[in-house]
Design a protein that fits this description.
Blueprint: H1 3-20, H2 25-35, H3 41-56, H4 58-67, H5 80-95, H6 100-114, H7 119-135
Helix pairs in contact: 1-3, 1-5, 3-5, 4-5, 5-6, 5-7, 6-7
């Protein structure tokens, strides 16, 4: 399975968890892996790492998102799909050291597939601001 496909599976679980707000993340991950028939170890490890990594670093990730929103926006106003994409991309860029161009490009492809009409531009704007801030 290609990394893009694995990333998409991770995004779908992150989005699902964003909606459900489940108490037992371990159980949700196992359910998701089973229902999605994910058997490849690389995929399982990547998905678990992304979910637990975002969970562990959620305060920093959300702070970066909030700091890079326009003045009249709040994090609650962001669609759950866009928020899930932002969390995954920021996690990959900061904590997994994936080159930001790769993480952003992959995220934008998912935004085109799953998001609303303006999702791609919105997500791209936030991630560009985050990267600029990280470089300074």
């Amino acid at each position: 399975m290609k990394r893009s496909a694995i990333r998409e599976l991770a995004f779908r679980l992150i989005y699902s968890l964003e909606i459900q707000k489940s108490e037992d993340i371990n159980e949700q991950i196992e359910l998701y892996l089973e229902c999605s028939e994910i058997e490849e170890n690389e995929a399982k490890e990547y998905i678990k790492d992304a979910v637990f990594g975002i969970e562990k670093n959620i305060e920093n990730i959300q702070e970066l998102i909030v700091k890079n929103l326009k003045a009249d926006w709040t994090i609650d106003r962001i669609s759950k799909i866009d928020l899930s994409l932002l969390k995954l991309a920021i996690y990959e860029i900061i904590y997994k050291k994936i080159p930001y161009k790769v993480a952003i490009n992959e995220c934008l492809e998912l935004a085109k597939k799953y998001g609303e009409q303006n999702s791609k531009n919105f997500v791209n704007g936030i991630l560009a601001s985050v990267v600029k801030e990280l470089e300074n």
